[in-house]
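#struct-help
A.M.: can someone run this one for me? Single chain, 254 residues.
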Amino acid sequence: MATAITVPFHGSNLFVVEHNNQPYTPMKAIVEGMGLNWASQFTKLNNNPERWGIVKIAIPTNGDVQSAICLPLRKLFGWLQTISPNKVKADIRANVIRYQNECDDVLWQYWTNKTAPAANNITLAAPKPNRRVKLSELIFELAELRGVTTQEIRIHYSQVFNNPCWPEGNEFSLALANVKLKHDIEEARKYKAAPVAELQAMAAQMGMKVISEYDLQAMHRQLVSQQEAIDEMNKRLVKLATQHSQMMNNPIWG
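D.P.: on it. Structure tokens below:
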């Protein structure tokens, strides 16, 4: 039976437990602390147990022993980033962002100390921001400015950096990503600050149309999809034509 370290976090009690000499954290407390539905998140974790490495651990809580679905603490950051703040209810959005920015660092601090400080010494101040925390903040800001999901931003940057695992990378690649994100945010602010009607009028005078980078990407994806559909239809037509030719050359015809 594992011994749990209790971690007070913005009004909720989270936990860290040791399993196979590694820190794990029970996920139900985190999910419900964020204000999310545990059943749907449990399904997501359970549908891909190899990716998340979840295990069931017996933990003593309130004088009783309960089995809890736990995630390796090293994988918590990745799971937190699967939650898109602009897809959750507005009343829990700030809390979701708080968990994404602070939760994994706070749990790690408690784990490395191997003990929970006394209640009167607990501070809920956010840890000093690291590159990954800053990265998630920039991703969310750019998504808000462009009116897209954070997942779309991540996919776009995966293509920019030619790294399907982005932002899983070294400190150098994270620093480059920060610079690129800050530049794109500045450009997005300039575009958003200009009245759209004014931009459209100016563009019309020059025989142009205002269109954003993401509009272009959406058009490209649509064209690619249409071309793939056309190619598939051509393959079927060739197959049907071949079958028809074979049938017509069959001796039983005519």
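A.M.: thanks! The longest strand covers residues 64-72.
D.P.: also worth noting: The chain has ten helices and five strands.
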